[in-house]
């Protein structure tokens, strides 16, 4: 009887070991792809800052000089100043977005970066924001943090501009099998038809969120809140999400097998 149990435990240990190796290989492949995309994103970021934003800033300065020359036409001068103010706002938002692309490199703390993103996008006098941590915090793989921040950025941007929410709760759940990021607001909600077709035609926010989740092997769910508002939830497997990988469970099976053998 003991011999049969030993053989069964050995087979289970070997099967789990093979599964763990397969899972590790898939995780490494996904991480390699994420690193490639991260490098490409950094290159694009540098080009955006060095070319587009700098060029627009130069253009604004030229129009500012023109505006000073048309002060004799009050209505035209006022419209020019308003247009320049709008252009300045676009420049600031563009720089914020470019800066956000580099946020993940400052620290691995996902919770700190999520708080920074919320502070940047949600005005505290209009929206009360809570960031809740569940489970023991763990280091998150930088490229996973990067994609989760981009999803958070898009979700909070939508809340700030469309949801009319008064309260937002962001939960980061460090589970043993998965990392979950959940964003809940009490706004007017989003129509199920819009979620089903991945957003409004010509807008790519929801599509981008799903694509980012897929890039890190995660699952994105957008559902109505319990009473009102919207819930956005991203779940990423622990093998991919966590940088501090714990020892494989198959070792515990192997130790158990060895103990059974020693008792025979």
From TrEMBL:
Molecular function GO labels: phosphorelay sensor kinase activity; protein dimerization activity
Q: Which domain of life is it from?
A: Bacteria
**CDD domains, alphabetized:** HATPase_UhpB-NarQ-NarX-like (cd16917)
For this UniProt record, the keywords arranged alphabetically read as follows:
Kinase, Transferase, Two-component regulatory system
Read off the Pfam families from this record. Answer: HATPase_c, HisKA_3
InterPro entries cross-referenced by the UniProt entry: HATPase_C_sf (IPR036890), HATPase_dom (IPR003594), Sensor_HK_TwoCompSys (IPR050482), Sig_transdc_His_kin_sub3_dim/P (IPR011712)
**What region holds the Histidine kinase/HSP90-like ATPase domain?**
143-240
GO CC entries: membrane
Q: Which PANTHER family match?
A: NITRATE/NITRITE SENSOR PROTEIN NARX-RELATED, SENSORY TRANSDUCTION HISTIDINE KINASE
Write the protein's name.
Answer: Signal transduction histidine kinase
What species was this sequence derived from? Rhizomicrobium palustre
According to the entry, what is the taxonomic lineage of the organism? Bacteria, Pseudomonadati, Pseudomonadota, Alphaproteobacteria, Micropepsales
């Amino acid at each position: 009887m003991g011999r049969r149990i030993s053989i069964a435990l050995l087979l289970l240990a070997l099967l789990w070991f093979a599964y763990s190796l397969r899972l590790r290989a898939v995780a490494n492949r996904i991480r390699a792809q994420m690193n490639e995309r991260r490098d490409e994103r950094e290159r694009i970021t540098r080009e955006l800052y060095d070319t587009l934003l700098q060029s627009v800033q130069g253009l604004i300065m030229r129009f500012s000089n023109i505006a000073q020359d048309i002060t004799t036409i009050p209505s035209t001068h006022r419209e020019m100043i308003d247009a320049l103010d709008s252009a300045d706002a676009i420049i600031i938002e563009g720089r914020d977005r470019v800066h956000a692309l580099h946020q993940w490199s400052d620290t691995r703390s996902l919770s700190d970066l999520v708080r920074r993103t919320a502070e940047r996008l949600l005005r505290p006098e209009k929206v009360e924001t809570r960031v809740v941590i569940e489970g023991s915090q763990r280091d998150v793989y930088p490229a996973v943090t990067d994609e989760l921040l981009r999803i958070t950025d898009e979700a909070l941007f939508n809340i700030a501009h469309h949801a009319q929410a008064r309260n937002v709760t962001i939960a980061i759940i460090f589970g043993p099998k998965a990392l979950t990021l959940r964003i809940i607001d009490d706004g007017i909600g989003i129509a199920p038809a819009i979620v089903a077709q991945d957003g409004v035609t010509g807008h790519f926010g929801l599509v981008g969120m799903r694509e980012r989740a897929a890039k890190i092997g995660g699952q994105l769910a957008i559902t109505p809140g319990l009473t009102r508002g919207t819930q956005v939830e991203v779940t990423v497997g622990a093998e991919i999400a966590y940088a501090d990988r714990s020892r494989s469970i198959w070792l515990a099976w192997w130790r158990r097998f060895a103990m059974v053998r020693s008792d025979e």
